[in-house]
Amino acid sequence: MKVEIDTKLCKAYANCTFEAPEIFEVDDATGKAHILDDGSLENRRDEVERAVDGCPVGAIRITE
Ligand code: SF4
Q1: Is the CB of 33 under 6 A from ligand 1?
Q2: Which long-range contacts (CB under 8 A, 24 or more apart) does 45-50 make?
Q3: pLDDT truncated to tens, each residue of the chain (64 aa)?
Q4: Domains of the chain, earliest start first
Q5: Which among 2, 12, 30, 35 could disulfide-bond with 63, CB atoms 3.0 to 4.6 Å apart, if both were Cys?
Q6: Which pTM does this prediction carry?
Q7: Whose Cα sits closest to atom 3 in ligand 1?
Protein backbone atom coordinates (compact mmCIF):
# COMPACT_ATOMS: atom_id res chain seq x y z
CA MET A 1 0.00 0.00 0.00
CA LYS A 2 1.29 3.42 -0.95
CA VAL A 3 -0.11 6.78 0.00
CA GLU A 4 0.59 10.12 -1.63
CA ILE A 5 -0.18 13.59 -0.41
CA ASP A 6 -0.61 16.29 -3.03
CA THR A 7 1.15 19.13 -1.26
CA LYS A 8 -0.20 21.64 -3.77
CA LEU A 9 -3.72 20.82 -2.60
CA CYS A 10 -2.96 20.36 1.13
CA LYS A 11 -4.10 23.33 3.18
CA ALA A 12 -3.12 22.02 6.62
CA TYR A 13 -6.69 21.40 7.77
CA ALA A 14 -5.18 18.52 9.77
CA ASN A 15 -8.19 16.21 9.48
CA CYS A 16 -5.76 13.48 8.45
CA THR A 17 -3.79 13.87 11.67
CA PHE A 18 -7.03 13.53 13.61
CA GLU A 19 -8.08 10.37 11.75
CA ALA A 20 -4.62 8.75 11.69
CA PRO A 21 -2.28 10.52 14.11
CA GLU A 22 0.42 7.88 13.90
CA ILE A 23 0.58 8.15 10.12
CA PHE A 24 0.11 11.82 9.23
CA GLU A 25 1.64 14.98 10.61
CA VAL A 26 1.37 18.59 9.51
CA ASP A 27 4.72 20.36 9.37
CA ASP A 28 4.44 23.71 11.12
CA ALA A 29 7.13 25.23 8.93
CA THR A 30 5.69 24.22 5.55
CA GLY A 31 2.01 23.99 6.49
CA LYS A 32 1.81 20.69 4.61
CA ALA A 33 1.02 17.17 5.74
CA HIS A 34 3.52 14.36 5.39
CA ILE A 35 3.60 10.67 6.23
CA LEU A 36 5.35 9.67 9.45
CA ASP A 37 5.57 5.92 9.12
CA ASP A 38 4.90 4.35 5.75
CA GLY A 39 6.09 0.98 7.06
CA SER A 40 2.88 0.49 9.02
CA LEU A 41 0.42 1.57 6.31
CA GLU A 42 -0.70 -1.92 5.34
CA ASN A 43 -1.87 -2.66 8.87
CA ARG A 44 -3.63 0.67 9.13
CA ARG A 45 -5.66 0.73 5.95
CA ASP A 46 -8.88 1.69 7.80
CA GLU A 47 -7.21 4.74 9.32
CA VAL A 48 -5.71 5.76 6.02
CA GLU A 49 -9.07 5.41 4.29
CA ARG A 50 -10.69 7.57 6.95
CA ALA A 51 -7.99 10.17 6.38
CA VAL A 52 -8.61 10.04 2.62
CA ASP A 53 -12.34 10.51 3.19
CA GLY A 54 -11.74 13.22 5.78
CA CYS A 55 -9.43 15.41 3.73
CA PRO A 56 -11.61 18.30 2.58
CA VAL A 57 -9.50 19.00 -0.51
CA GLY A 58 -8.90 15.42 -1.64
CA ALA A 59 -5.14 15.70 -1.20
CA ILE A 60 -4.54 12.11 0.02
CA ARG A 61 -4.53 9.26 -2.44
CA ILE A 62 -3.96 5.53 -2.03
CA THR A 63 -1.94 4.54 -5.09
CA GLU A 64 -1.65 0.77 -4.63
S1 SF4 B 1 -6.55 16.65 5.76
FE2 SF4 B 1 -5.81 17.06 3.69
S3 SF4 B 1 -5.54 19.26 3.61
FE4 SF4 B 1 -5.65 18.69 5.75
S5 SF4 B 1 -3.54 18.41 6.40
FE6 SF4 B 1 -4.32 16.42 5.79
S7 SF4 B 1 -3.74 16.24 3.62
FE8 SF4 B 1 -3.58 18.37 4.16
Answers
A1: yes
A2: 45/1, 47/19, 47/20, 47/22, 47/23, 48/1, 48/3, 48/20, 48/23, 50/19, 50/20
A3: 999 999 999 999 999 999 999 999 999 999 999 999 888 898 999 999 999 999 999 999 999 8
A4: 3-62 (3.30.70.20)
A5: 2
A6: 0.92
A7: 10
14 contacts: CB under 8 Å, gap ≥ 6: 26, 33
Radius of gyration of the chain (CA): 10
β partners of residue 35: 24
Q: Ligand 1 centre from 17 Cα, in Å?
A: 8
Kindly state if the Cβ of 23 falls inside 6 Å of ligand 1. Answer: no
Q: What is the DSSP letter of 48?
A: H
